[in-house]
UniProtKB/TrEMBL annotation:
This is AraC family transcriptional regulator. Pfam families: HTH_18 (PF12833). PANTHER family: ARAC-FAMILY TRANSCRIPTIONAL REGULATOR, TRANSCRIPTIONAL REGULATORY PROTEIN. The keyword DNA-binding applies.
C-alpha cells in the first residue's frame, strides 16, 4: 500500500486511543509519523496534498491529483492512491467523530458534504488557499506539541476552519471511469468487508450486514456491486460476507468465552436463533456443538 492511502502507523494510532482528544496532526512522511497500515475503522482524515503527482480512486470513480488539493476521507469508504510518492509533501489530520463533537457539533460526518458517500472528496486549492490552509495545519501541529491546557479546542477550531474553507469551494474535479472498474470495485468491497473485523468486544456490532449496505458505502448500485464482485472473484457478495462472518464466528467461539447471544449480536444477527440456524446451515453444527467439540 502506498504512502498517501495508507494512513499512519498502528503505534501512532494507539496513542490517539490513549488520548481523550482522539486527534493527531502531522506532515506527510515525517520521521515521527511514517505512513503505513491504516485500517482503523473510526478515524476520519483530512489531507493537504501538495505533491501533485497521483491519482485517487473511489470505487468506480477516479481523479487525477495534478495540483494542490484538500482530500477528505471517511473510514468506512475505501479509497486508494496511485502514483509516485517518493516526494510526498503536505499535511494530514486524523480524528474521530467524537473529537468534533467536543464543540457541541452533533451532525453526522458521514452525511456532511465533505465525507458522505457519493460526495466530492477532493477540493483543488490555489496558491492563496494553500498558504492559508498550510498555516492552519502548522498551527495545529504546533498546538499538539504544546502544553496548553486547551490545545485540543484550538486544534478543533482550526480543523473546522479548514472544513469550512472546503465547503465554501465549488469542487473543480474531473472524475472518470478507470479501466477495470469492476476489479477495483471488488477490491474496495473486500477491503471494506475486511475492515469490520476482527470483532474485539461484545459491544461492537458489525455495521455492514448485507450487499446493499456495502453498495451504499461505495456509492454504487447494489446490482452493479454484485456484478463486479462476481465478475472479478467468481463469488457473490453474499458468499463473501457469509464466509467472513463464519470465519469470525469460529474465532469467537474458539478463543473467547462470550455467550452465543453476544456473538450473534456482534455479528449483526437480531436474534441468537437466526445465528444458530445460519451457522448450522453452513457448518452442519450448532455454535454450542462446535464449542463442545474443541
Amino acid at each position: 500500500m502506498d504512502a498517501l492511502s495508507a494512513g499512519i502507523t498502528d503505534n501512532y494510532l494507539d496513542n490517539i486511543h490513549n488520548d481523550p482528544a482522539q486527534v493527531r496532526v502531522s506532515q506527510i512522511c515525517t520521521a515521527h509519523c511514517t505512513l503505513a497500515g491504516y485500517n482503523r475503522r473510526d478515524f476520519y482524515k483530512v489531507t493537504l496534498n501538495l505533491a501533485c503527482n497521483s491519482k485517487l480512486f473511489y470505487a468506480s470513480r477516479a481523479i487525477d491529483i495534478d495540483k494542490p488539493a484538500l482530500v477528505f476521507t471517511n473510514p468506512l469508504i475505501p479509497y486508494s492512491w496511485e502514483g509516485d510518492h517518493t516526494n510526498s509533501d503536505g499535511y494530514f489530520c486524523v480524528f474521530t467523530h467524537q473529537f468534533l463533537q467536543g464543540n457541541g457539533r452533533l451532525d453526522s460526518l458521514d452525511q456532511s458534504t465533505l465525507f458522505k458517500p457519493g460526495g466530492d472528496p477532493v477540493y483543488f486549492v490555489n496558491d492563496e488557499q494553500v498558504t492559508f490552509i498550510r498555516s492552519l495545519f502548522e498551527r495545529m501541529e504546533k498546538e499538539m506539541e504544546s502544553e496548553y491546557l486547551y490545545r485540543f479546542d484550538v486544534v478543533r477550531n482550526h480543523l473546522n476552519l479548514i472544513m469550512h474553507e472546503a465547503i465554501k469551494m465549488q469542487p473543480a474535479v474531473a472524475y472518470y471511469r478507470p479501466q477495470k472498474a469492476s476489479s477495483r470495485i471488488a477490491q474496495l468491497f473486500l477491503g471494506l468487508l475486511d475492515k469490520q473485523f476482527p470483532v474485539e468486544s461484545p459491544q461492537y456490532i458489525v455495521p455492514l450486514k448485507k450487499a446493499g449496505d456495502y453498495a451504499d458505502k461505495l456509492a454504487v448500485h447494489v446490482n452493479h456491486l454484485n456484478a463486479a464482485v462476481r465478475e472479478s472473484t467468481g463469488k457473490s457478495t453474499t458468499e463473501h460476507i457469509n464466509s467472513r462472518i463464519l470465519a469470525e464466528a469460529r474465532q469467537l467461539l474458539t478463543h473467547t468465552d462470550w455467550s452465543v447471544s453476544d456473538i450473534a449480536a456482534s455479528l449483526g444477527f437480531d436474534y441468537a436463533s437466526y445465528f444458530n440456524n445460519f451457522f448450522k446451515k453452513h457448518t452442519g453444527l450448532t455454535p454450542l456443538a462446535l464449542r463442545k467439540n474443541l
